[in-house]
């Protein structure tokens, strides 16, 4: 009946049968069976002893136990040994089919999870990308949104943020020190000989670039106050009062700006945003 049910319902292939537990061990291990349907009471070696022996031999398949015994302690012991289901005799065809399908689903789920674990383990063994490889795309995306990616100071900003990410790698930064100190630390780290001259040049390049970012952002706001980029960046990267002032200056064609540019806020925000996206 078991044989017919398995084959008729296309549940799998019956790869062997045995008269007792001792006669089954070698065949089960050799044929790498997924599921073993085993009787509790068998000559020479009972079902629980057979399960224990198979597990000691390295068998990792599933067991479905069949017996007319209904002693609770014996059934409990069978479950404790790893039996998936316990079917009582006389067996019912529908119950057998249902139980085997449930065990098959259990096996598929385990294999799927194992596949996921294996894939994740492969990711763990891959060489880690250096920070600049991971951060550069995000940084360039933001600078492109501001329309300043082609500015000379943009490369300074990218390199500076990458340096800050390394410097504060294991720290939670609430506020940066003075900009001049940050620039000096970075230039010294970069082994530039004339530190003072390079700090001043870098500061000017970055200030011009941030000023251009504000100019472009204010122009976006004038064209469309609901522009997604304007809404996203205006109050995050700049003091909004400065953005409004810049918008008025553009409207009135003022040549001299009265905006006191907050470069430190721009750099700090860019650092925080990049860290969150790394």
Automatic annotation (TrEMBL):
Descriptive protein name: Response regulatory domain-containing protein
Gene3D superfamilies in alphabetical order: 3.40.50.2300
Keywords: Phosphoprotein
Keyword Methyltransferase: no
Modified residues (4-aspartylphosphate): 39
Entry-linked SMART domains: REC
GO BP terms, alphabetized: phosphorelay signal transduction system
InterPro entries: CheY-like_superfamily (IPR011006), Sig_transdc_resp-reg_receiver (IPR001789), ST_Response_Regulator (IPR052048), YcbB (IPR013972)
Highest taxon, organism lineage: Bacteria
Residue span(s) of domain Response regulatory: 1-104
């Amino acid at each position: 009946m078991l044989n017919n049910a398995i084959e008729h319902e296309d549940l799998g292939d019956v790869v062997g049968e045995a008269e007792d537990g001792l006669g089954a061990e070698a065949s089960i291990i050799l044929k790498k069976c997924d599921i073993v349907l085993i009787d509790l009471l068998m000559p020479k070696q009972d079902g629980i002893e057979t399960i224990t022996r198979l597990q000691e031999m390295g068998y990792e398949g599933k067991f479905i136990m069949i017996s007319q015994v209904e002693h609770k302690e014996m059934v409990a012991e069978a479950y404790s040994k790893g039996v998936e289901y316990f079917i009582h005799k006389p067996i019912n065809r529908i119950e057998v089919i249902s139980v085997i399908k449930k065990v098959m689903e259990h096996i598929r789920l385990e294999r799927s999870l194992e596949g996921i674990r294996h894939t994740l383990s492969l990711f763990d063994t891959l060489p880690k990308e250096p920070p600049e490889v991971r951060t550069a795309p995000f940084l360039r995306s933001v600078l492109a949104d501001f329309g300043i990616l082609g500015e000379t100071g943009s490369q300074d900003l990218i390199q500076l943020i990458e340096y800050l990410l390394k410097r504060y790698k294991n720290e939670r930064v609430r506020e940066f020190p003075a900009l001049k100190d940050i620039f000096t630390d970075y230039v010294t780290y970069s082994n530039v000989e004339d530190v003072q001259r390079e700090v001043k040049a870098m500061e000017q390049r970055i200030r011009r670039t941030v000023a251009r970012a504000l100019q472009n952002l204010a122009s976006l706001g004038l064209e469309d106050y609901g522009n997604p980029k304007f809404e996203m960046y205006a109050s995050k990267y700049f003091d909004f009062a400065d953005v409004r002032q810049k918008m008025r200056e553009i409207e009135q064609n003022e040549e001299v700006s009265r905006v006191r540019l907050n470069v430190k806020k721009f750099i700090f925000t860019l650092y925080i945003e990049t860290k969150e996206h790394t």
